[in-house]
Please model this.
Amino acid sequence: MPVKFLRTHARITGALMMREIITRFGREGLGFVWLVGEPLVFCVGVILMWSVLKPAYEHGIHVGAFVMTGYMCLVLMRHIINYMMNAVQANIGMLYHKKITVLHLIISRATLELAGSTIAFFVVYVAMFLLDQVALPHNLFLLYAGWFSLFWLSTGMGLVLAALAMRFEVVERIVGIFMYMLIPISGVFVMVAWLPASYRDLYLLVPIPHTVEMVRAGVFGEFVQTYYDPLYPLAWGTVLIVVGLLLLARAIKHIDVD
Model:
């Protein structure tokens, strides 16, 4: 029974992901490639801009590799939150089908963005490696742990914001401001080691830098000093997901699909 239950929901989620790809990118042209190409283009553009404006090395780290590890984390977080925000509103008609729930809509979008951002990260990494801008990862497990911890945390934030947006229209309008406010405290363009020692503990109260530091520790290894607690962002993500599910359960009652 549990296996059949999981297979059923996996098929529903997979079908919604395919529908989302076709709806967003169309059947013709590059199609699915844009799922990867969109974050890829933005990341390459930022790397080129920083390479022109900044010296070749930032605190002993090649600027291209530094920007890649930070900006791709930002892309993952931003895309998951943004696309989860209007997952229900954009697919309200799908709820006519009794087997499809709001949770299916949200999970399908989050999974799709994880897949696109992960492939884009891999493509950028390979390109940077071929250009001799970055070495092979020193610790793949730590790199994966940081990346998926960020996904878990971002999903929690997206779930809470999506549930609130279903109840209050103003949330959808201010989420862009919220995302910009996260950038300075996210650790994507700064490392904790660069901060004054007296501010590090305060800065690390924010869970996002822990995930980015883990990604960079996995890429650069002992070459750079990193600060992180692997359980801290997971705990935050779990709490946010639970809160988001509770808020979602209440928000669903206010959805009219008739």
Notes: The radius of gyration is 19 Å.
